[in-house]
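Much of the work behind modern protein science is quiet bookkeeping, done one molecule at a time. The protein below has been through that process, and both of its lines are reproduced in full.


***
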Amino acid sequence: MKAQSLEMMIQYIENLQVHMIAGNLTKVKPNWQKKPSLEPFNRLYFILEGEGRIKIDETVYTPLPGQLFIMPSGTRHSYSTISDDTYLKFWCHFTATIGEMDLFKAIHVPHFLDVQEKQKTAKQFNMLIDLYHSDQLSAPIKIKSILFDFISQFIEQSVLKTDFSSVHNINTVLKYIDQHLSEKIKVETLAELANLHPNYFMHYFKSILGLSPIAFINQKKMKQAQYLLQNTDQTIAEVAEQVGLDIYYFSKIFKRFTGFSPTKYRQMNREP
């Protein structure tokens, strides 16, 4: 990946949202078959045994036991049996979005991985299915954690798609934000950099990054403040100045962002 594109994608992934739609462990029937179609969600298969056929766009696969397959949303895919030895597989349908953009439209991942820790992956799928049917308050968080782990395995083997440049004007905006965190950044200035009307720019920015421009800027400012509080001896007032905020507003946003006052945060992160 090019450095600029990689940096931008990392900022996108920070705002990744995932949602599980369905999942189970299934021994597919001899008539298991699906005609080519586009789906608004991603399919994830972990093959345990058997054989079959999957076609993603123009590529045909015969997944093997121990392989983790993904069929990204927006791809034309189909599947079918090829013998009486049908698949026993874990499966999960889920969405992965950044703002209004599907993750796998921004990056290209391999369609399958050869799983090294098969028992661990099977255990994760079992947990995923149990959690999906659970009424535990923490279940949605645990589900996201497992899905993030699966997605990360594919992302580690990913490359940016060439059409990622379609949002290149946002890159200019992100660079400007990084270079001017110590200032009060106006949405109008960012919109001008993107050559967009401010009202449309706010919708456009949120559709790509999943946050409004102000929320994104404050997130960046608070991360910079966390670093300064942990790694420098600057006073709270000096840290606030470094991120372009008056001390009262800074303390208010910082506590909302971290759950702690700047003073308490510094104390907690400097304890031996």
